[in-house]
Design brief:
- It contains 2 helices and 5 strands.
- It has 115 residues and is an alpha+beta fold.
- It has a single domain (6-106), classed as HIT-like (HIT family, subunit A, 2-Layer Sandwich), CATH 3.30.428.10.
- It is globular and about 35 Å long.
- It binds adenosine monophosphate.
- Residues 6, 17, 29, 31-33, 41, 88, 94-97 line the site of adenosine monophosphate.
- Adenosine monophosphate binds next to loops.
């Protein structure tokens, strides 16, 4: 856990944000500035700065993030209508928090290409 990381603090309960899911590896909570009717962030509970920091050893973690996203999409009732998973990496992509996070977006038609 990184002392100055807001997503570490949320994922580990130091900031009291309601979690929509948690297990030993993954935590999920609603985005504070939702861009769609469903906008959930899934994060590893351990600090990982982002995609560029991933290694082969993170395979099980990535599988857990994606399967949890699929389960949450079913729970949110958007599995059939469709949803998008987004991981921003670096400034041009708009990454603002340096802790790996998957955006789960759905509940409306999402434009393509993204802005
Ligand atoms: P990104 O731009 O991909 O780094 O996404 C960071 C996301 O974190 C943005 O969509 C923010 O709205 C969201 N965010 C930042 N702080 C919080 C917070 N305290 N609780 C929930 N979501 C947050």
């Amino acid at each position: 856990m990184a002392d100055d990381c807001i997503f570490c603090k949320i994922a580990n309960g130091q900031i009291p944000v309601p979690l929509v899911y948690q297990d030993e590896r993954v935590a999920a909570f609603r985005d504070i500035n939702p861009q769609a009717p469903t906008h959930i962030l899934l994060v590893p509970r351990a600090h990982v700065t982002g995609v560029p920091a991933l290694t082969d050893a993170d395979g099980p973690l990535l599988a857990a993030l994606l399967t949890t996203a699929a389960a949450l999409a079913r729970q949110e009732g958007i599995a059939e209508s469709g949803y998008r998973l987004v991981i921003n990496a670096g400034p041009d992509a708009g990454q603002t928090v340096d802790h790996l996070h998957v955006h789960l977006l759905g509940g409306r038609a999402l434009g393509w290409p993204p802005g």
